[in-house]
Amino acid sequence: MNKRSGSASRAAVGAAAALVLLATGCGAVTTNGAAEGGDNSVEEGFSVGLLLPESKTARYEKFDRPYFEEALAELCAECDLLYQNADQETAKQQSQAEAMLTDGVDVLVLDAVDSAAAATIVTQAQNQGVPVVAYDRLAEGGVDYYTSFDNRRVGEVQAESLLEALEAEEAGDDAQIVMINGSPTDPNAGDFKAGAHEVLDGQVEIAAEYDTPDWSPDRAQTQMDQAITSVGADDIAGVYSANDGMSAGIVAALKSAGVDDLPPITGQDAEIAGIQRVIAGEQYMTIYKMIRPEAEAAAGMAVAAATGEEYDGGEIGLTEVEDEAGNAIPSVLIDPIAVTADEVEETVIADGVYTIEEICTDAYADTDFCTEAAGSGGE
């Protein structure tokens, strides 16, 4: 297994969407000595369970689910997809997984609400010989495969962008920022936070910092209200926000406090509302994560695990990520891309995620981005 070295270019990431499965005979894949798997065939088809964590973040229903479904159908036309969304409820996801296992699902693709609690799901699946692919978040318990983004790098890129914005505004060495991190039950949030601190510590003063249960925009707004009270609206030079949904709450809090000239605010997920805030100057940047290759990798892993084949990670290749118990999980990690107003066209529009018409609604028609797009005929 080759370790991943260097940063994959956007072209390489796109090419990695071609899923490569290398047949290894009819034996089962037992990556961590956990699941049996391997007794199914693409020709006859089998059952795949997809468990996503929540719907507050727009990406899951708009992109992850349909991309995964499309990739699975291409790899296994006879396969059945069972799908459930947990609405950010750990107990609900547990019940959904148990129902799928009772129904005889052959492989689970799990994006855990709570990584530690998901170990119960993983163990139950292992006991029934059902392999588990951890999707986007690394569930504990010794899963068979994992695909996500280089999450520590996400935090680093967000923080680097924030420092660039502060430098452009000549904020000075004594600039104070507020950090509003993601959910404490999401291991990805911990990686984002660690990556951001690696860049920000010693460069700026972190005047207030919060972790945000459930990635809630409402809680982020409340936390920003608290930061404004304790630090002072005029003394906040920038805001590290872990994702776009929370950025919406942060912007709302600042506007309610009478702040007209908003400080630079980070984000993540390239949600259309986040992109619109970026072109309107209300949010400095967002992180674009190419969800299609992530979903395609998960489908390839699921088919490989269920049929006794080996998934080699395509052009990105496999690396290893250790879970909390020290299990080395074969993984595909995709690099994040920073998107400011200058990069919108060459990223989310060029890749067909959104059209100019979808972004440039009436509320944003007067932004520089939309007026320039209108002047060029939207090309």
Automatic annotation (TrEMBL):
A Pfam family per the record: Peripla_BP_4
Subcellular locations according to the entry: Cell envelope
Annotated signal peptide: 1-28
Cited InterPro entries: Bact_Solute-Bind_Prot2, Peripla_BP_I, SBP_2_dom
SUPFAM superfamilies on file: Periplasmic binding protein-like I
Gene3D superfamilies: 3.40.50.2300
Chief subcellular location: other
The protein's name in its UniProt record: Substrate-binding domain-containing protein
The species this protein was found in: Nocardiopsis mangrovi
